[in-house]
Amino acid sequence: QHYFIQSNLRMPPEERNESVSMCHAPCDSFIPASLPLLVKSADTVPRLQTDDEETDRETMKTAEEKEQEKEEEEEEKEEEEYDSSFEQPPFSSVMSTYLGLFLLVVFGHIRELLRKLGLDKTMSTVEYGNEGFVPLYRDFESFYTRNIYQRVRQFWDHPVAGVPGPEIEIWDRKFGPFNETMQLQPTKRKYINIGSYNYLGFAENTGRCSQETIQEIRWGSGGSFSTSRGELGTSKLHLELERLIAGFVGKEDCVVFGMGFATNSMNIATLVSEGGLLISDELNHSSLVLGARLSGAKIKVFKHNDMEHLERILRTSIVEGQPRTRRPWKKILIVVEGIYSMEGTSCNLPKIIELKKKYKAYLYIDEAHSIGAVGATGRGVCEHYGISTNDVDIMMGTFSKSFGASGGYIAADRDVIAHLRKESHAHVYSSSISPPVCRQIIAATQAIMGTDGTDNGATRIKLLAENTRYFRRALKKRGYIVFGELHSPVVPVLVVTIAQVVAFAKCSLKMGLAPVVVGFPATPMLGSRVRFCISAYHTREHLDWILDVIEKLEPGLGIKLSQKNKAKFLS
Fold this sequence. Notes:
There is one protein chain. By secondary structure, this protein is of the alpha/beta class. The chain has helices spanning 2-10, 13-22, 24-30, 51-55, 57-60, 63-81, 91-116, 139-147, 208-219, 236-249, 260-265, 268-271, 286-295, 307-320, 349-359, 381-385, 414-423, 425-428, 435-449, 456-477, 498-510, 540-557, 564-570, and strands at 38-40, 46-48, 160-161, 167-175, 182-193, 253-257, 277-281, 298-302, 332-337, 362-366, 394-398, 408-412, 490-496, 513-514, 516-518, 528-533. Helices cover 44% and strands 15% of the residues. The strands form 4 sheets. It has a 7-stranded mixed β-sheet with strand order 6-12-11-10-9-7-8, sandwiched between helices. A 4-stranded mixed β-sheet has the order 3-4-5-14. Helix 9 (208-219) packs antiparallel against helix 19. It starts with a helix and ends with a helix. Mean pLDDT is 84; it is low at 1-49 and 567-571.
């Protein structure tokens, strides 16, 4: 290769094109595109780039390319200027939260006493007849559920009718005394949906995905295989899906599972075990936490996205070795998420990979909320940060968000996937993904990749990115505390107090808005929040209407807690 280029440069100009065309067949296969001197012409024949062509390179670009470059530069500038740091709530909100919790706990203990005396007849999950034994229930959380959550449970667990589109229908319910019983009613109400994980809008009952899914049920393999992948549950559909996902994320091989939660909880134990070290972000999903505990490995937790703390744990762990024996760890596995579903933040992937390489650790990344929703072509946080997927050892994702289906996958090297197919409990014992769900995922993935012959997937990815940036900036400017990065479609707004969360849920439903409200124990005591999930199906009119509803509710709730953003908005 080097000899060909040098000898070609020594030839007279009139002989160069002839020499290049004579050597075209072998040359085109081994000269990399990264060489600055060689470019490909319209007829694919390699030729030398002259100085005049190099100086006129900008003039040869089309208007669309220049416009695209301009948009990318503006997005990078917005990303840099956007403040994604965690802003602390005001002191007054913190004190009012603690005071409210104190009063609720006091009255809760009074009700517990009345129950023991037989004066309070409400149903509860108090344990009786096990004196001298360790309680089966977690004491404080069960106390919290009985005396606080039970009083306001009508604002959670809504039964949804139909697909999770921009508008949803919710069944009405009738609750008994103290919300102890619930009866479904025959009536439904319409709401604007801002709480579903249907990021790209593929969970729909019209369009190509829906049509192919219906055809698979009618004329394909039916509704279920009713067996595990390890027995008779592997079909051509599963193999096609695995090849497609492996190519999509840029890995050698892939294995799919019927449940996203089990993809984490049932597979981590096959990758690391006793004698190994698992280092986990403190805000990792409960499926990752369960998988880590089942593995038997030593677990160490680092502060959320705190790279200094992560490096300190890595360095100290390697120096000290295993407890008692001080032997070296069999392996070290770092476990993080692409986008954290309660915070909307992204992992600091460039720095994590730097530390992984420095300390010779493995990296497991959960892309449940980032695959399909982040990156120019929906390929997740690796694409967003411009990082090769070869630097990530284990790539996990779920199909219940951007793909509008169910299940999960793990993509890695062939040897790792072969090991999982043999040892994974989720592969050997759990039911395989049903044929219509497989067909839904395949159709959605083909749309995202553009191999369906349309730009449907690319358009949805672009719309999602635009909607996310618009909604986040609008909330920030109005003075709300918003967690997460600018590109994250999970948009949590900090509310702090439990009373405000409940009031927001109640009032927004009356206004026709269906958000997700989250409180303890899913969040810290001071971390109650409203979580908005943006989708490609939202129009600008939808988002403006939602912002107007929030603004109308704010005077009575007092949830504009940001000091710096409020100052910017007023100025």
